[in-house]
Amino acid sequence: MGGRHRTDELEGDFNPQHEPPPRRRGGPGKVFVPLAGAVALAVLCGVAAYVVVNKDPQCGEEGNGPGEKIGLTVAASPDIQPAVQKVAGKFAKSGKKIDGKCVTVTVKAAESADVANAITGSGPTKAQAEDRSGADPDVWIPDSKLWTTGLPTDGTAKVAGNAARSPVVLTTSKSGAEKLRSAFSPASWTGLMSAANAANPDGLARKVRVLALDPTQNAAGLGALLAGASVLKAGGGSEELLVGVLRQLSESTVPSPDNLFATLTKTTARIPVGVASEQAVWSFNTKTSPSSPAVALYPTEGTVSLDYPIVIRAKAGAVRKAAAAFAAELTSASGKKTVQDYGFRTPDGKGGGLLKPENGVSAKKPAEIKLPDQASIDKLAQAWRQVKLGARLLGLIDISGTMAEPADSTGVSRMKAITETSIEGLKLFPDKTEIGIWAFSDNLQGPGVDWKPVISIGPLAQQVNGVTRRDRIIQAMQRTQAIPTGNTGLNDTLWAAYQKMTKEYQPDKVNTILLFTDGVGNDDPNGGIENKEIIQKLKQAYDPKRPVSILIISFNTTQDDDKAQMTAIAKATGGAAYFPQTVLEVRDIFLKGIARRLCAPNCGGSAQ
């Protein structure tokens, strides 16, 4: 997380009070040149630094002691690695022996996600092939138990207590905190989620820019999502609201706490607010001496905490005994004092004297939000991955004569209602989204060709003749008018669109056809594809391994037969049909459509 580990000292002599470092054993000025060279080489090669802790004199120098030594490898989250290193130094100097043998402790900083992926084989890892100590250590101390769910259940992985605790907090710069009081005060998950809601860009988001840590790589990022989702659910928030938040946060992730704090200090029109561990805030302020310190904001609803479980992975025998003895040292009174010296709390949440306002934090223990069950955690993680996927969308706009009729009692035409809400809904899509537009009625490109491409499919941010595709779509929608005598060649248009999207399917995106119509259905005087035939064609063409779904917004549809046909079309492709009766209802449809990405491609059809 935010803590940095030293690679230039053998025993982790960082002292928060800046006292002179204690003299090492072996005589004044003694330098272990081979080890120092190895560490330097590791740094130059980009390999995570590690430390072999010097042993008690009675164990002798490396390779010269009475009897074989026990080598213990420890992989710790980078933020807590310096503290673990300090404890390891005390453990080695204590003269503790296992089965009459001395213990050599190697402490390595390793990202929790990397170790978890390496152990479980669940994802990519940066572990070096030539250095497996981080990939398969005897003792593993990740920053959260959230990483331990995939560990073997055969007893080979045992959690032997916790090394420390650090609450997940909101954070901003000191100057940002002062401005934030007028935006939302006191600090809360409710306020943060409101500012991050993509469906309300003109609300709190106009004042506050929310920064997120990737929850697939950072436990504080996942913890923040879990806390925010819990608060939303407790307040009666809908799934669509959560999706709006996830969509927005997916576009504002920063790769690491260091990048987060660097962004917080920049002067911007909107106040940047992020999430981090309390210890990361402390570390940033005490180790970098920033001109604009970070401030930890403790949500009023409470929060979740990083809990640094001590996972013993040693298989058996003397090494497993040594691992258990080292775990006991970490959880001892001395071990607890050491982690407090590095800005952490003890496992029971007690803060030390360094957690003070001058360092941007508070020693007062915040209220706890209980983590949800594993199924809920997995569901949220899956939702994040789905929302992070790109999108490729082809919009089909009905411009037949009935679209000129009133949409509701306001007198606004169906055409105007669709175009205005489409322009509003476009705000929900990030610049990387690929969108194109077709208009359809009948014979728009000659006899029997009922559709006409208006804007080709491509990224919204892409410029065409100096104008972004997003702006071109807005301009085209504003000019769109219904053809007074136009019929509705719906089925032929749908089939042409489905063939195109299937042929151009992109596996790294959610591929969707979004149909806007008024529900009158297919009334093509030229014949074309019949209602039963289009459903059969779509069923045959739909491939769940390469899913292209149809979402339908059928305005003012009242006839049961029309609703049944639209629903059948959508269901044939794992899509959904919606039947709004007022302009306001249409606005909610966009988020419902995005929400379906959480279950794609196995959502099933629905009519609303």
From TrEMBL:
InterPro entries: VWF_A, vWFA_dom_sf
Region (Disordered): 1-29
Transmembrane segments annotated in the record for this chain: 31-53
Highest taxon, organism lineage: Bacteria
Keyword tRNA processing carried by entry: no
Residues annotated as domain VWFA: 392-598
Keywords: Membrane, Transmembrane, Transmembrane helix
Name this protein carries in UniProt: Substrate-binding domain-containing protein
UniProt organism field: Sphaerimonospora cavernae
Classification lineage: Bacteria, Bacillati, Actinomycetota, Actinomycetes, Streptosporangiales
